[in-house]
Amino acid sequence: MAASFEREGNVGVVVIDHGDLNLYDPEMHRELGAAIEEAAASGVRALVLRAKGGVFTGGVDVHGFEGLSQQQGAELFEDLVRLVHMLEDMPLPVISCVHALCLTWGLELSLGADMVWAAEGAQFGLVERVVGLTPGAGGTQRIAERAGPARAREFVMSGGLYPAETFERWNVINRVLPAEDLLEKTMKFAHQLADGPTVAHAATKKIIRAQVEDGTRRADARIGEYAAALFETEDLQKAVKSFLADGPGKATFEGR
Fold it and tell me: Is the pTM value of this prediction over 0.70?
């Protein structure tokens, strides 16, 4: 399968596995979408996106671009962006675990995750310029969101390959780890998040999204809706009782 869903306790894993280069094509789109939907319905409390093989992805199978009309191109981009939105809208932490090479749609999809962890020496690129295109799955604007418009222009217009270390400095990705430790440490952190107050994590995602889309003051106005609602959750009520009885760090959370 080009993509599949696996589960390790409360952590779900969407695994990309589609030939040597993990290229995006219609099969990849169908199976990746199905895997993300399965993850969303599974009840997991954190999700990791990773790829098998020598690279995370070498990009898109450009055979599919030949002869496309504007309308067909728009439909292709809408389908891709929908996958990104599926990750962004998940009410749980999502981490993309990137190794080696991550081009075009793979980077754009990863930017839909809450965090991106990468291996030392990994390289990222939105290289659509080589076929006369600009990124169509939200990568440009999400790079601008994290690194600023000037760096987004440089990155996309140059079509260059940028190392993980540069992306970490630019605040595009979160951590750079030795390749041999990447998956283990990503999964360990995902389990820590899954064992935590995942309803609160979901509220955190909403507040940050509100700030990004509407600004700080409008995000402030949503606190009563997003954060204050947590007072009525089982997790908070039990955690407060645990804190008062036993001190901090003893509470367990169930995502309710």
Answer: yes
